[in-house]
Structures are given as C-alpha cells and as structure tokens.
C-alpha cells in the first residue's frame, strides 16, 4: 500500500492509539516530534467530560513514535496515509483532526490529500512551510544517542545521566525510554531522526512536502492556533496558509510557547469545544 501525495511511501500500521470518551464527535489528536498520543490526554479528557459523552477522542502515536511501528524512511505522505488507515479502521468519519508541530504538518497533509476523512482541522503552532533544518532538535538527538542504555540501572539512573538542564524537556524526551526486562531502548526511532537532522537544509521533517498548486485547497473549517511566545508562526505565513486553507481562523494564545496545549490547556479546550460545536451543526 502506498501513500497519497505521490512519493510512494509505504504505509506502516496499524498505529497505536488510546481512546478517551464513549460518544460524541470523533476527534483525532496527533503529537509533535518525540511526543506520544498520550501527551493529549488532559485535553481529550476535558473534551470527553466526566461522563465521556462530550467527544470520542483517539490519541494517535505517529509512526516512529510511542508504541507504533517504525518506518524505513521519513515521509509526510506515508505518515498521513498511516494515520488515515488507522482512523478508518475505527470509523469512516469524517473526523476533526488536531495536530501539533510535526503532527500539525501531518494533519495538514492528511486534510489536503484525503479531505473526505476530515471535517474540521486544528493546527497547533506550525505552518505549511520549510523550516530549513532540524538544528533546534539536534542537541536533543545527541543527548538521546549519548545515553548509555546498556549501563542503566533504573529510570532514576537514566534521569541522572541525561544531560538536559530543562526539566520539562528532560521529562518529555525521557518518556520515550522504555524498559524491557533488564534492557532499555528508545521507543522513538532516534536514528531515523538523527539521519534526517544530519541532512541539514535537506531535512524532510523540516520541509513542507506539497508545493503550491500540487493539491486543491481544503474547504473545511480550520483553526490555526499559535503561541504568542513561539517563533514557529510568523505573519508572512498567513498567505500560504490561506492559499491551502481558505477558511482558516488564527487564534494567538497570549503567553504560550510552542507547546500551547501544555501552557494554556484551558484556552485550547475551550477553542476545541467551539470547533466541536461548529462541526455538530
């Protein structure tokens, strides 16, 4: 099976998912680089509500992340097709799809190449553009690769040896460390990301795979969420975003960084509730 978008990338799957909620609109959540579906748990539980009837949320581990299979090469088309196959196995949809950072690009590719599956789109702090390279992640990748997995005694030992001063970033990256018996491994496909980062400006992850005119615009409603303290979305990005998503609305969250849903969960939950209400009309 090959992915939509023309690059022939193989679909991996089924992807690992977590379900939150028992009834209501279908919402899929896609995480960022080195994340996992469960990073969206707080938001999903709030949307589902105490009785689980507010929404049916599916939290997806993207390929090369969490408990999902690894791919041989990175491809946004392959990632999007893997997500599409996984969601259709749950429900033919259409789905509200929410994606942050890397997951935001995957969500945009999914909406543009498989619009029948997506009713509404929420893109969190990323734009459909080439970001140049993965230099901002290169240090994290080196830290992960330098951790001596064969010497670790326990998770406390891993935390002590992991050279990252930002405790939040450390916890985020170390969620990828998994113990199996007496040995340890990274759940994330660190070598794949290291190889991509080594490509510099030819990084596929930093790039945007759909050049202007290659696909028809997505005609569904789109909420574009940006952190006011983040550098990932600039004013100049609005034109290309509108060209691909003509019904886009920008929400800038005051005081939030790139991790908007972690910095301002109440704001994100309220915004998503409005998206759900609009989709239900």
TrEMBL record:
* Domain AB hydrolase-1: residue ranges: 26-265
Note the InterPro entries from the entry: AB_hydrolase_1, AB_hydrolase_fold
Per UniProt, which keywords does this protein have? Hydrolase
GO MF terms listed in the record are:
hydrolase activity
UniProt name for this protein: Pimeloyl-ACP methyl ester carboxylesterase
The scientific name of the source species is Knoellia remsis
Q: In the record, what lineage is assigned to the organism producing the protein?
A: Bacteria, Bacillati, Actinomycetota, Actinomycetes, Micrococcales
